[in-house]
Amino acid sequence: MNNKKRETIATGIVVFALLMLSLSGCADVRRLTYPKHFTWLGKSEVNSVMHRFSDSLWRIDTAAKRKSPGDREIINLELSKMIEEALSLMATRQNEGSESIVTNHLLIDEHLDDFLVDLNQAKMLIENDPNNTYAIGNLTGSCAACHQFR
Ligand code: HEC
Predict the structure, then answer these.
(1) For a substitution probing ligand 1, which of 109, 119, 142, 146 has the most ligand atoms within 8 Å of its CB?
(2) Residue nearest to atom 5 of ligand 1 (CA)
(3) Residue 132's closest CA among 140, 143, 144, 124?
(4) Total domain count for the chain?
(5) 48, CA 20 to 30 Å: which among 1, 3, 29, 41?
(6) Which atom of ligand 1 is closest in space to residue 115's alpha carbon?
(7) What stretches of the chain show up as alpha helix (H) in DSSP?
(8) 14 part of a folded domain
(9) Residue 138 lies in a domain
(10) How many angstroms is it from 91 CA to the middle of ligand 1?
(11) 22 inside domain
(12) Is the CB of 77 under 6 A from ligand 1?
């Protein structure tokens, strides 16, 4: 085999490899380029959770301002929903591999635990004392803990 022929074959192999890589789709490429314990959180996945957070927070704020009977239940329900959302985000992170604690969202990795603590604390305070809107007011700050560097 002369050099020219060898070159042609080598080029052919590289082209074929690239073709297979592009055919296998982005998900697989990601799997190749990131460590095993890494979980990819899609932008729309994160954003839709965030929009539900916003909705819940709005309902909580409205209820807290109104201070009429039944509002405590509304606040409690919304807090439960937010806790569920946060937990599901947490579960997604831990899906692939046992100790998956790294995602493409550094902020989520760093702050999700704290956020869950804040939510549970607010729920506990509201259950003990319905007039305690202090914890509710603090929730906005809990969002900001994750958002301040964006
Ligand atoms: C654990 C971290 C974290 C917490 C806590 C958090 N967020 Fe977010 N939020 C993010 C990240 C990361 C993004 C950006 C997603 C992206 O890259 O598009 C985001 C984006 C958003 C967006 C923009 C969504 C869009 O479609 O562009 C809204 C609205 C939002 N958050 C609301 C909230 C509210 C309200 C709270 C508190 C109840 C909250 N977030 C708490 C991490 C967090």
Answers:
(1) 146
(2) 143
(3) 124
(4) 1
(5) 29
(6) 5
(7) 3-23, 25-33, 43-66, 71-95, 106-128, 134-147
(8) no
(9) yes
(10) 17
(11) no
(12) no
